[in-house]
Amino acid sequence: MSDTYADADAALDPTLQNVLDQTSLKWIFVGGKGGVGKTTCSCSLAVQLAAVRESVLIISTDPAHNLSDAFRQKFSKKPSLVSGFTNLYAMEVDPTPDLSEVEGLEGGGGFLADISTSIPGIDEAMSFAEVMKQVQSMDYSCIVFDTAPTGHTLRLLQFPTTLEKGLNKLMSLKESFGGMVSQVSRMLGPSMPGGEDMVDQLMGKVDQLKGVVEEVNAQFRNDELTTFVCVCIPEFLSLYETERLIQELAKFEIDSRNIVINQVIFPEEAGTSRLLQARIRMQQKYLDQFYDLYEDFHIVRLPLLEEEVRGPDAIRAFSENLIHPYKPAPPPPPSAGSNSLLEELQRKVQEQAARIAELEAQLAAARR
Q1: Do 143 and 274 belong to one domain?
Q2: Is 62 marked active-site?
């Protein structure tokens, strides 16, 4: 470990223990660039949280769900208990379901979907609000979000603000809209039963969602309740995208103080491989930049492994690296009966010394 890493470790604890210790946290987002190991990290964090919290729910909001693959267990849009645990649940939700299926609209969802198209982004935001409403009604100590790659995640975090603006616009149309339906209903008489009731029902639903969104928005901006864990790898594009993500999180007023750097190759494990040694030099350059840029962050380094982390037991074992800094295993001792490199060199030196002594004796005899 270089002096840079030693200084960083001394300044801030290089673990996610701070997340476990903050018992007030309700929403924990895990996100970053695609392919950096977000699902493995979010599952590992959820496993550690389950050890100290009463109940934990992990939700995948990535359209390409990976929770089922990670735990080797099929999950759906309803919470399921993760095998091997008593208080860890998982679910995979569609972040953009059909609004006609939104709970409580009884046939008016299609109509709501039609009028919502005039407000960009509100359809996705409304679906997100419905998911959040369902989640809030569940009694879990904390919820971990395994998010989609950065661009989708930033849109998801914008949903509360987008929806709040959109619903305010819809609510402002309520009087004129309701009056129009009332007139049409009187003109058509019995052929349009419940016209005004439908408007009231729809607007009531909109108002209800608006209340959920306002509450979620406030909670997301409360660092006592919400934090975002950034996952990356020690490469240029990942460093760049992490910086963009952290800047955007600051704009949304969402707390972010932890960075997990995954797939790190440790020098002790490189052996004599020139390829690995070259990768280590490249990675160390970006690791130095991470420590320079984020000196006030907890930076956790996770190792590049030979195999994928899959299954509850493998995730449980890997999750220990989030709480206890990873230490590379010492190289295995030489097998019985074999000589180490040093012993082999000493043997060759002794052979050469004996050979030289023999030649010197022959030379002395020839001179006589």
Answers
A1: yes
A2: yes
Of the candidates 7, 13, 21, 62, the residue annotated as catalytic is: 62
* 331 found inside a domain: no
Here the CATH number for the domain that contains residue 251 is 3.40.50.300
pLDDT digits (tens, 9 = 90+) for 314-328: 999 999 999 999 998
Query: Are 61 and 132 contacting, i.e. CB atoms less than 8 angstroms apart?
Result: no
Domain co-membership, 233 together with 261: yes
Per-residue pLDDT tens over the stretch 3-27:
445 454 456 899 999 999 999 999 9
Nearby residues of 171 by Cβ (< 8 Å), 6 or more positions away? 203, 206, 207, 210
Strand-strand pairing, 226-232 and 27-32: parallel
Domain that residue 210 falls in: 3-323
Strands 298-303 and 258-264: parallel
Residue 239 in 3-state DSSP?
helix
As for how many domains the chain has, the answer is 2
Taking the model in full, what pTM does it have? 0.75
Q: Could you tell me if residue 328 is inside a domain? A: no
CA–CA dist 93, 70 (Å, integer): 16
Comparing 11-20, 93-102, 189-198, the range with the smallest average pLDDT is: 189-198
Same domain, 185 and 293: yes
Residue 251 placed within a domain: yes
Q: Distance between CA atoms of 163 and 123, rounded to whole angstroms?
A: 9
